[in-house]
Amino acid sequence: VTISNTTYAGTKLMYSDWTVNGALEITTGNHLNNYDNTATYYDIECKGNWTNAGIFTHNSQGTVTFNAATDVNIDNGTSTFQNVVFGDDAGGAATYYLTAASTNIRLTMDINEDAVLDLNSNTLILGYNVGAGKVYTVSGTLEVDADATLAFDNRSSVCTLTVDNAGTPAL
Asked: What pTM did the predictor assign?
C-alpha cells in the first residue's frame, strides 16, 4: 500500500480516519482494511488518484471521499466501495474518472455540486444484495457516455437515485 509516496507491505489496518493528500495505491499482493480489529471502522478522504491492484476491504462500513483540486483517476480493481462521496461543495471543481472496467458502490453515493463523475466508457453498478438504505444522490454531474453502463442491483431492496436540481445537475 502506497500513500503519498510512503509504502507499507502486507495488510494495513486503519486505526483512525485518514486524509490522503496525494495518491493512494494498493499494490498487488497488499491489502488495505478500514477496520482496526476492535469493532471500529474508519473513513478515507483521498485528494489524488486511487489505484487498487490488491484488496481494499470496507467491511460494509466507512466512507471514501474523493475531494481533489484537480482531475483524478479511480481504479478500485475488483474490490467494492460501501459509501462514496465525490467533491465537497466548497468550490474547486474536479472530474473523477472511473478507470476500472466495473466499479460497484454498494450503499450510498453523493456527487456534490463541484464534482463530475465520468464513467469513462466503463460500468458503474449501484447497489448490492443488502437491505434498505441504498441511496444515490447526484447534485453535480454524472457522465454516462455511449460506451458506459449505469446499472442498479436491486436484490433485497430497491435502489433510490435522487437528482437534485438545486445545483443544475446533469446526467
From this structure: 0.91
